[in-house]
Structure formats: structure tokens, C-alpha cells
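Our consortium's second objective concerns turning raw sequence data into structural hypotheses that experimental partners can test. To show how far this objective has progressed, the report includes one record in full. It was chosen at random from the queue rather than selected for favorable results. The single chain below, 171 residues long, was entered without modification.
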Amino acid sequence: MMRILLLIGALLLTQAAAAAAPAPPRGLMPLDGRPAPALRLADMNGQVTDLQQLRGRWVLVHFWASWCGPCRREMPTLQRLSARIPPTRLQLVLVNTAESEDEVFSFLAGVTPELNTLMDRDGRVTERWQPRGLPSSFLVDPQGRLRYLALGGRDWTTPAYLNFLQALTAP
């Protein structure tokens, strides 16, 4: 009897959590919740970021390249997003795909000087994550599971995306 009550309680908690989750805006595809692939890269200053160390908060993992037109248009919206939602609630992890530091530095200096990016010099991390084009952004939940995917560029500060992300990451 106790076991049945525990199962019913777990089911009710799962349903309540699903009901409390905001509906994703158009263009943000729900994923199956499988564990996020490993991601451990250094930025241009040699500072290493490991996705495992970011557990406990939502993470937006964004794959991009300077030659990508939609990436160029989207990058300033990511900078504005970072100013609207603090990194304690939503950590932005930008991953440049197989470009030189000079290319990346020139691009970021002219478009989004306050954002930092990790360097996937050999493209192995990008290959592991398998984005279906650039830009691609994955939302990883606080437990390290893949929850949403955005393919292509977008304005992350439109009301639909901003409201969704603020509700999703609310304390």
C-alpha cells in the first residue's frame, strides 16, 4: 500500500512540474531530456569551461561561426539576453566552430565585444553535439539534460523568447 501511495505521489509531482513549465515559443523544439554531450573547452584566454560544472542552472549552448550570416545577426540579441537574465539563472555558453582566434576576435570585437566564446578548434565538440546547421542553440536544464533546440538565428529578446526564458529560469 505504501509503495502505491509513493508511486501516486511521484506521478502527481511529475504532472505538476509539467503543468508549471511554460510552453516554448514557436521555433524552440522540445527535446527528449537525454543527457547533454560532454563539453569542455577553453576560450581565447585559455580559461576552461566545463558543462558539468554548470549543473544547477539552465545553460544555453550556442554554436556559431563568423562566416554565418544568421549568426552575425543573432549575436547582438544574445548579448542583450545576457544583460536581461543573470548568469546565475541562465548561463550562456557560446561555442565557435573551427575558426582561428584572429577570425573570432575580429568578429566579436565588432559585433558583441562583451560576450566571450569557447573555441572548438578541431570541431570535435560540435560533432558530438550534432547541430543541424549554424547557428544552433541547445537549452540544457539544471540536471544536465537536453530540453530544447533552436535551429537558425532568432532575436532572443523578443517578448515570446524572453518571457519563456525568464519563466523557465525563475528561482
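The partners drew two points from this record. The helical segments are 2-20, 69-84, 101-111, 124-129, 159-168. The chain is about 35% helix and 20% strand. Both points have been shared with the crystallography group to help prioritize constructs.
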